Amino acid sequence: MAEQRKKLTLQSLFKKVADGKPITWLTCYDYPTAYMQEQAGIDMILVGDSLGMTMLGYDSTLPVTMDDMIRHTAAVRRGAPTAWVIGDMPYMSYQPSVETAIRNAGRFMAEAGCDAIKLEGGAEMADRLHAIAGCGIPATGHLGLTPQSASALGGFRLQGKSAHQAKKIVDDAKILEEAGAYAILLEMVPDRVCKLITERARNCIIMSLGSGIDAHGQLLIYHDAFALYPKFKPRMAKVFANAGKVIQEGLAGYVKEVTERTFPQPEHYFGMPDEEYEELLNLLK
Ligand code: KIV
Asked: What is d(CA 71, CA 108) in angstroms, rounded to the nearest whole number?
């Protein structure tokens, strides 16, 4: 096993930004993938409520519960002990009230060993984010395409295309920073808007998902980047390795070899000495 690196902290993340080094971020939902991401040197891991779609097969993220999130996040933490692990607050785990938001953010920290949480929304959710940050829990904002509001936003589409829509996102980013967000994810906003927000950020790490190159770092959904989600591939996702194809071919090979009785071979199973076998037959008489 590779030598274990030092634990990522808020300080080390801000130092990367100050040094002009991009921050790497991927989603992850399980122990073996977290282990591989940690070995690859990923800085931040988001246990996204996208697991509702990528892991549980729902059509949206809305059915995901806090208990689903805690179980997956704890597994990721076990696989990636030094990455900065962010628990994504699922639908209705923070919207109802400030108190609900604090309690559920606390569960991510106490039960799943998170370093931070993420919640969706701008000015209208700033009081939740402020209260969570006030409890000493690093809070990540999320603007632009916010999947929990996909219905109100008209689907999974680019946000902030017009000057007026873009101004709301720029204003929201400032409001979240002032509310205490240490980082904000911009999902599917035009690259120029992302650049403006990044340039205006004072004490906040701006991350891009499909929002261009000028943020302090990049996020991708793991299942998109490795072709593991069969339903669709968003334009912003580059496929870095076609793991889905490799696994599909392996599965076809397994089915074929078992069907044709070419698997297993003697090296894959265990024998018994002749004398023991003879005695067994005698015992069975
Ligand atoms: O749940 C998730 O993975 C997310 C991303 C879409 C940013 O929130």
From this structure: 10
Q: What are the backbone angles phi and psi of residue 220, rounded to the nearest 5°? A: -130, 155
Spell out a b/e string for 129-157, using b for 16 or more CB atoms within 10 Å of the CB, else e: bbbbbeeebbbbbbbbbbbbeeeeeeeee
Q: Report the run of H or E that residue 244 belongs to, with start and end.
A: helix 243-259
Q: pLDDT tens, 83-129?
A: 999 999 999 999 999 999 999 999 999 999 999 999 999 999 999 99
| Contact (CB, 8 A) for 66 and 93 | yes
pLDDT digits (tens, 9 = 90+) for 143-199: 999 999 988 898 888 999 999 999 999 999 999 999 999 999 999 999 999 999 999
- 222: which 2 tokens? 């793991």
| Cα 270 to ligand 1 centroid, rounded to whole Å | 46
Our answer on whether the CB atom of 224 is closer than 6 Å to any ligand 1 atom is no
DSSP class of residue 121 equals: B
Which are the catalytic amino acids? 187
pTM of model > 0.90: yes
Which stretches within 46-113 are classed as H helix? Answer: 51-54, 66-79, 98-112
> Contact, 191 vs 213, CB < 8 A?
yes
The neighbouring-strand residues paired with 24 are 218
